[in-house]
Amino acid sequence: MNSLVSSQQPNLECVESMIHVWERIPWETLPPSAKVDLGLWIFRFKPSIRIIPLIGDLKDTHDTFKALFPNVGLTIHKDSLYMSLDKTLCLLVKTLDWLSSPHGEKLGTLLGYPPCCSKHISQFPEAMIDSISALQNKAISGFRPHILDTSEYSEGICLVSHVPCSIYCSASSILARTFLKKVCSTKGGSQFQSWKTSMLKKYGDLLE
Ligand SMILES: [Zn+2]
């Protein structure tokens, strides 16, 4: 934590330092799901993230994130903001995202989705993804809490940022459970604590 005292810049190698920045992220301009994406990114479960801000000028959002995370890869294109710890990776993700040729499987992997899930979902047109997710959540409705319950992703309460290849996907379940433990064991500031409380309310019974 000494790095925080000497500088306002987060130490990219230190999750506690990165979580400290959570308190200064302009959440009001972002969709609630950005908490899941940024949480997974900060805890190193996602190499890259793509966020479409809700309001405000995208360039302003870019500049705000640049000030918060000065040494990461950060770029914008059209309506989207891309961020990676690695600058080259960030540009690759942006390029892939706007390719007209099929790219879903590769892009999914760069966004931290397990290979089985990236491969599975890339077989479907993008317009079908929400209904696939809805069907999965319907299937687990009688078994909640469920580690792969993604029904509240859009509200920012979820342990993965992708549609699992199945509700039994072991790679997704391991990712989700490990993320839950990391969130639970991290203190953070009041904003992080508030999100953590919501996450534990939903998934806390799944902690061993
Ligand atoms: Zn999978």
What's the main sheet like?
3 strands, antiparallel
Report the bound ligands by name, code or SMILES.
zinc ion
How many distinct folded domains?
1
Q: How would you write the strand order of the largest sheet?
A: 1-3-2
- Helix vs. strand class: mainly alpha
Strand content: 5-15%
Q: How many whole angstroms does the radius of gyration measure? A: 17 Å
Instruction: Give the beta-strand count.
Output: 3
**N-to-C SSE series?**
HHHEHEEHHHHHH
- N-to-C span: 28 Å
Question: Please, could you describe this protein's structure?
Answer:
This protein is mainly alpha-helical. It has one domain. It is built from ten helices and three strands. The protein has a three-stranded antiparallel beta sheet with strand order 1-3-2, with helices on both faces. A hairpin with a 2-residue loop joins strand 2 (73-77) and strand 3. The radius of gyration is 17 Å and the shape is globular. Zinc ion is lined by residues 114, 116-117, 164-165, 169, 171-172.
